[in-house]
Write a structure and sequence with these properties.
This protein has 509 residues and is of the alpha/beta class. It contains 19 helices and twelve strands. Helix content is 51%, strand content 9%. Bound molecules: 6-phosphogluconic acid (6PG).
């Protein structure tokens, strides 16, 4: 139907889990959506859901049978949102839209988990054919349906066009309390509060920030899993008992979506066997790559994010299931210590404090990485805004994002979150228990790579003199790589003639 009347506000391509829920969210907020998907079953499911939710109201979503029909359903300049898998499918859809006749002032918004450098390349590649804009979305399917956290970036004109749409569908926060205002009822979107959507910067920066969000997500999840393993394997606690501990933790400084869902997973039983479901889930973690991208970027930029990297490695080692099962019969560990009920209770408290301190370090690593990337790429990222839009809707939403927001409001040029007076005090109060938890786990042979790497990060960052002096000596010894001296001006290089008698020191510049 190429010449349909333009009755829709937004074109939407991709009716998968995220796309379908974003479309229903748009519809709840009064937008008429023209939808297209290569898979007709997905479109039918979308229409059925719309019909179920809208009751006797007229249809809010129009299914289109081609890209051409989709364009004809919209007034120019067109606004088209993509929710397709990252990578080649994004370009495939863009080419189809170009073939169908989109124009230079039409806006195409990619909402997938795209690699940020692909976004930069696409902005350039489609210049003159459309305005390629990006918006990274966090919140999973429920977030997409009832309020995600949105990280848009790219052309400022496109932002003015999409801003009211994103602000309408985004998660909302009560400005007084900093807590999410939630509604999970179809047709009743939250219309008050601060929207968790803010313009991040030029093309690619939004996807970069989302990538770091996911890196933090990986580390946060892994650290929660490590505290679970210590409770399970050292303290012999049942999933049900651990769920209760997590529920308790969720009432305090650790209050977060990830702690909440961990408690719910642990409290769930397998309907067939009645066993705790978590005991039946295979311990092999999957990944789609965003945590890995974050770790790679941190290595490339020299901005340390060891706990994020450890979280990626933890998934990798978990996937070596067959090898681990074999190794478990060969490789020795320490004997399991016997703990009194009092010692067990102390260990649970130590794990709580360890998770809190390590979490602060992970955010410190993530924000430091974003700062380094911003300096490198000339983005002026607003870190208090980033913390602000992560307070609700996204997977890492947590009570203490308000404290991060406050920290960057106090000082937007903060070098490292750990140096903020609030956070440095928190870590100094709880660090002893953090050390105790890591030591206990290590003594007992339980891997806590993310919790302990965060501790090493903290200790390294607060150490004025690291052993890199010896390392520079080693490098100079075998490779004449030279070193600077503490008693000379920075920048002057020296080398030792290690093989000559008396090992004379040569000034190199
Ligand atoms: C989100 C999530 C979402 C997704 C990731 C993680 O913010 O909504 O991060 O983007 O769950 O892709 O996936 P993996 O754990 O499979 O890498």
């Amino acid at each position: 139907m190429p010449n349909a009347t333009p009755t829709c506000d937004i074109g939407f391509i991709g009716a998968g889990v995220m796309g379908k829920n974003l479309m229903l969210n748009l519809a709840d907020n009064g937008y008429k959506v023209a939808a297209f998907d290569l898979d007709n079953d997905k479109l039918e499911a979308l229409l059925a859901q719309d019909s179920l939710e809208r009751g006797d109201q007229p249809p809010r979503i129009t299914a289109c049978s081609s890209y051409t029909e989709l364009l004809s359903r919209l007034s120019a300049p067109h606004l088209i949102i993509l929710s397709v898998p990252a990578g080649k499918p994004v370009d495939d859809v863009c080419h189809k839209l170009i073939d169908a006749g989109i124009q230079a002032d039409d806006i195409v918004v990619d909402t997938g988990n795209s690699l940020w450098t692909d976004t930069v390349a696409r902005e350039k590649a489609y210049e003159g054919q459309c305005i390629f804009f990006s918006t990274a979305v966090s919140g999973g399917e429920v977030g997409a349906r009832f309020g995600p956290s949105l990280m848009p970036s790219g052309d400022p004109y496109a932002w003015t066009r999409i801003k009211p749409v994103w602000e309408a569908i985004a998660a909302k926060v009560d400005p007084e309390t900093g807590k999410p205002i939630e509604s999970f009822e179809p047709g009743k979107p939250v219309t008050k509060g601060e929207p968790c959507a803010a313009y991040i910067g030029p093309g690619g920066s939004g996807h970069y920030v989302k990538m770091v969000h996911n890196g933090i997500e990986y580390a946060d999840m892994q650290m929660i899993c490590e505290t679970y393993q210590v409770m399970r394997d050292l303290l012999d606690m049942s999933p049900h008992d651990i769920a209760q501990v997590f529920q308790q933790w969720n009432q305090g400084v650790l209050n977060s979506y990830l702690i909440d869902i961990s408690a719910q997973v642990l409290a769930t039983s397998d309907p067939d066997s009645g066993q705790p479901l978590v005991d039946i889930i295979l311990d092999k973690a999957g990944q789609k790559g965003t945590g890995l991208w974050t770790a790679v970027s941190s290595l490339q930029l020299g901005s340390p994010a060891p706990s994020i990297a450890e979280a990626v490695y933890a998934r990798a080692i978990s996937s070596l299931k067959t090898e681990r099962v074999k190794a478990s019969t060969i490789l020795a560990g320490p004997d399991k210590p016997r703990l009194t009920p009092e010692q067990k209770a102390d260990t649970v408290q130590a794990l709580h404090d360890a998770l809190y301190c390590a979490k602060i370090c992970v955010y410190a690593q993530g924000f430091h990485l974003m700062k380094t990337a911003a300096d490198e790429h000339g983005w002026s990222l607003n870190f208090s805004e980033i913390a602000r839009i992560w307070r609700a809707g996204c997977i890492i939403r947590a009570i203490f994002l308000q404290s991060i927001n406050d920290a960057y409001q106090r000082n937007d040029a903060l070098t490292n979150l750990l140096l903020d007076p609030f956070f440095s005090k928190q870590v100094s109060i709880y660090q002893q228990n953090w050390r105790k938890a890591v030591a206990k786990a290590t003594e007992s042979g339980i891997p806590v790579a993310a919790l302990s790497s965060a501790l090493s990060y903290y200790d390294a960052y607060r150490t004025a003199v690291l052993p890199a002096n010896l390392l520079q000596g080693q490098r100079d010894f075998f490779g004449a790589h030279m070193f600077e001296r503490t008693d000379q001006a920075r920048g002057k290089k020296f080398h030792v003639e290690w093989n000559q008698p008396g090992r004379p020191i040569v000034k190199m510049n």
